[in-house]
């Protein structure tokens, strides 16, 4: 049995059998009409099929419209910093309590990004929401966290400490990754002091010059590692690899997908160098706490600068 197209080709090749061509036309024409009719029917079916879906989706905008009214009733948006619960949590250094008093991570973010939360300093390195980049050094430059704890994972350097909260979150993330079959996660670098950052950066300057060093290493006083909230991961199967290899490992993919559940974000994503000032670093993870990490994830954010409505920080001022 031959298809219509085959007949057409044979007829074209054997042009002396002219009598057969009208036969192909006679077959093709009704088929064309049939296809057109089927297409019309399909379009009609599509319209019919779409209708119930459209009807199902209709209540959603109505529900979304109702939410701000509820929030306005519960918490006047005018000055969240005047709220007693916000002030009390700020005074005791209870970051999660502050965010809860604002009405959750998304509400906190929105207030800060809109300039409606002057009591929240994005420059305070003691807070889990601090933003450190090439335009925003640690203040003071010599900052050191009040408390540090050794991370209970395989470590490839001696810089294996973090603040207690991110340390606990990292350990539970590593346990969950392992249980999920993603393999073993190890630590390369956690907290780095101003002094250690100084020698690290100076080493890069000696090797690559200042602009080369700036592309791969923060200047002392400008590194997230100095906050005790950021760290670099490696995959250990069972021997630990390099930070550069981490992104392509099952561990790296798992962390990129699930880190937010534990309060983490991948700080330097691909295509964001113009905002963050850094080439992609899938191994460099920053703790912002579970409430903000969920808001970051749900809101589809890719930089902490955009998350808080801050200007891009592609480079140092001088
Ligand atoms: Zn790092």
Automatic annotation (TrEMBL):
<dbReference type="InterPro" id="IPR009045">
    <property type="entry name" value="Zn_M74/Hedgehog-like"/>
</dbReference>
<dbReference type="InterPro" id="IPR052179">
    <property type="entry name" value="DD-CPase-like"/>
</dbReference>
<protein>
    <submittedName>
        <fullName>M15 family metallopeptidase</fullName>
    </submittedName>
</protein>
<dbReference type="Pfam" id="PF02557">
    <property type="entry name" value="VanY"/>
</dbReference>
<feature type="domain" description="D-alanyl-D-alanine carboxypeptidase-like core">
    <location>
        <begin position="161"/>
        <end position="289"/>
    </location>
</feature>
<dbReference type="InterPro" id="IPR058193">
    <property type="entry name" value="VanY/YodJ_core_dom"/>
</dbReference>
<dbReference type="InterPro" id="IPR003709">
    <property type="entry name" value="VanY-like_core_dom"/>
</dbReference>
């Amino acid at each position: 049995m031959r298809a219509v197209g085959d007949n057409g080709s044979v007829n074209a090749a054997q042009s002396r059998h002219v009598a057969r061509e009208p036969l192909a036309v006679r077959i093709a024409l009704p088929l064309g009409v049939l296809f057109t009719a089927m297409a019309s029917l399909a379009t009609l079916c599509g319209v019919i099929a779409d209708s119930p879906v459209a009807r199902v989706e209709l209540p959603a905008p109505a529900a979304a419209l109702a939410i701000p009214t509820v929030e306005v009733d519960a918490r006047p948006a005018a000055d969240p910093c005047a709220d007693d619960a916000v002030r009390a949590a700020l005074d005791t250094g209870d970051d999660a309590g502050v965010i809860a008093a604002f009405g959750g991570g998304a509400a906190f973010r929105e207030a800060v990004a809109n300039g409606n939360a002057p009591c929240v300093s994005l420059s305070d390195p003691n807070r889990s929401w601090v933003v450190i980049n090439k335009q925003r050094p640690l203040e003071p430059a010599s900052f050191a966290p009040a408390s540090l704890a050794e991370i209970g994972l395989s470590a490839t350097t001696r810089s294996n400490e973090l603040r207690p909260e991110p340390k606990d979150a990292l350990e539970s993330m590593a346990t969950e990754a392992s249980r999920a079959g993603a393999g073993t996660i190890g630590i390369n670098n956690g907290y780095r002091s101003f002094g250690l950052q100084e020698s690290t950066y100076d080493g890069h300057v000696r090797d690559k010059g200042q602009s080369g060093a700036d592309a791969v290493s923060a200047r002392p006083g400008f590194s997230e590692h100095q906050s005790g909230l950021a760290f670099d991961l490696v995959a250990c199967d069972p021997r630990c690899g390099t930070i550069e290899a981490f992104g392509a490992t099952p561990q790296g993919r798992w962390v990129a997908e699930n880190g937010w559940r534990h309060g983490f974000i991948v700080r330097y994503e691909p295509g964001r160098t113009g905002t963050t000032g850094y080439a992609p670093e899938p191994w460099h993870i920053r703790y912002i706490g579970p409430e903000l990490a969920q808001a970051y994830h749900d809101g589809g954010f890719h930089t902490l600068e955009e998350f808080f409505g801050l200007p891009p920080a592609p480079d140092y001022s001088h």
